[in-house]
């Protein structure tokens, strides 16, 4: 698949780049995508939720009233889950939600997500660029020149660029990552995927 290369002003440079079929043109595997996104979201969970059980409640252990003759149900402790302020039955406990996926399955999921973006014509390829200084205004202008101000964008760089990353960090609809950080969730969560010519090569080497 051939895609025209744009400069930072949104103008065509006259060059084009080939998106390899082995990465951007495979038959998407929806189940692999589902598992990879599920793992990504599970790994975001801290799992620090906790409620107190009856043995953890601070309170008296005195028997509330005599066992028989009251006409009511027997009760042995104010810490019973039946009483207001008592412990909780089967409440949440700290746990780890993460789980393992095979590398090849995660690779298939990323290629499937990239193929969906290619099918939707949602990939924009830019010539390699950098910013001279950290300026959010510069990044806003960069996105506006590409006519993507209303889109959620994901810019994938071949390697870390602090000026570009810090310039985009405060913007809700913009995210900047490096090619080795690319996840299936990020690709699908973005409206437009912005790649540089070098990041296309990096992705091809990593996923092909």
Characterise this structure:
- The protein has 208 residues and is α/β, with parallel strands linked by helices.
- It contains seven helices and six strands.
- The chain has helices at 21-24, 30-44, 103-119, 136-145, 162-168, 184-189, 197-207; strands at residues 2-6, 12-18, 123-126, 153-157, 174-178, 192-196.
- The chain has a six-stranded mixed beta sheet.
- Helix 2 packs across helix 3 (103-119).
- The two termini are 15 Å apart.
What topology emerges from the helices and strands here?
Layout: E1 2-6, E2 12-18, H1 21-24, H2 30-44, H3 103-119, E3 123-126, H4 136-145, E4 153-157, H5 162-168, E5 174-178, H6 184-189, E6 192-196, H7 197-207
Parallel strand pairs: 1-3, 3-6, 4-5, 4-6
Antiparallel strand pairs: 1-2
Could you name the key traits of this structure?
6 strands, Large ribosomal subunit protein uL4, RNA-binding, Ribosomal_uL4-like, Ribosomal Protein L4, Chain: A, 2 domains, alpha/beta, 208 residues
Radius of gyration: 27 Å
Fraction of helical residues: 25-40%
In CATH terms, what is the fold-level topology of the largest domain?
Ribosomal Protein L4, Chain: A
Look at the structure and give the CATH class of the largest domain. Answer: Alpha Beta
- What gap, in angstroms, lies between the N and C termini? 15 Å
| Structural class computed from helices and strand pairing | alpha/beta
Number of domains: 2
- Looking at the overall shape, the CATH architecture of the largest domain is 3-Layer(aba) Sandwich
The share of residues in extended strands comes to 5-15%
Instruction: Give the integer mean of the pLDDT values.
Output: 93
Shape: elongated
Please name the fourth-level CATH homologous superfamily of the largest domain.
Ribosomal protein L4/L1
InterPro entries: Ribosomal_uL4 (IPR002136), Ribosomal_uL4-like (IPR013005), Ribosomal_uL4_dom_sf (IPR023574)
Subunit structure: Part of the 50S ribosomal subunit.
Pfam families: Ribosomal_L4 (PF00573)
Region (Disordered): 45-77
